[in-house]
Amino acid sequence: IAILSDLFLGVTAPAPCRDALDSDDSGDIDITDGIYLLNFLFQGGPDVPPPYPGPGVDPTPDDLPGC
């Protein structure tokens, strides 16, 4: 919900946690993140990239601020 709210409702996620919205780990926040996560949750799609399944810092370098 946070991904879609950020993209379409203008409810921006807190600046320090924007990297958490990048569920496909592409380095951008876009509609593919919502689709990727819904596919994972409801269709048995590929796992979310690390640090999933546990909490932690995104190990992939990108320009999105982490939590």
Describe this structure in words.
The protein has 67 residues and is an all-alpha fold. Helices cover 31% and strands 0% of the residues. The chain contains 2 helices and no strands. The longest helix has 13 residues. The protein is globular. The protein starts with a helix and ends in a 24-residue tail after the last helix. The model has no long low-confidence stretch (mean pLDDT 90).
Quick gist of this model?
The protein has 67 residues and is mainly alpha-helical.
Keywords for this structure?
globular, 67 residues, mainly alpha, 0% strand, 2 helices
Provide the succession of SSEs. Answer: HH
Number of helices: 2
Mean pLDDT across the residues is 90
Describe the main β-sheet briefly.
none
Helix content: 25-40%
How many extended strands?
A: 0
Q: Uncertain runs with pLDDT below 50, 5 residues or more?
A: none
The class by helix and strand makeup works out as mainly alpha
Please give the alpha-carbon distance between the first and last residues.
Answer: 18 Å
Q: Provide the gyration radius in Å.
A: 11 Å
- Molecular shape: globular
What proportion strand? under 5%
SSE diagram, text form:
Elements: H1 2-9, H2 31-43
